[in-house]
Amino acid sequence: MADHSSSGTHPSEDQKKAIYEGLSDDQKKKQTYTEWVKDAYNNQYENWMPWIEDKYLAWFGTDNKASYATKGTLDKTKITGISQVDKLQDGVNNLVGDQVGKDGLLAPVGNMASKEGINRAERGGKDEQGSYLGPASSSPDSVIHNAKGAGEGLAGGAQSVGGAVSDGAKGAGSYVGGLFGGKKE
Question: pTM for the whole thing?
Fold first, then answer.
């Protein structure tokens, strides 16, 4: 398939058909024109969406995908319903998420987790060039397993931190409630 990404233009329907007609008979037997166009679209989507998401996060905030995912996971841990405690928990969640963000202490870890973990998971284990392990790649399974493990490890760590924060918030909430005559747990 011809690469039209460098010119910045999209091939017209006639150009797509001409490219398809230029394929060998064996390739045409494997796929109809519609299947071929669908595969080409999916390939472009797989290549460009992780990049678009990274650019959006870079332009409009201080998050990378790792910090964004960490904050999202921790936001699901609110349990008290007390606005002051929830606000405290939001601050801790942002503090933890920001550490793997653009200017955080763990920014290199967050960037690596975003690029090699989350982006590879979105691309089915492939890197930006469509390879599993680069030019010397012979075993894609280990990279897929490692990329999924990195994403799961990051989410698990975020849940662990979120659990500790919510446990502390529960304690603070019951203590504050007890001061004002509420039920102490």
Answer: 0.49
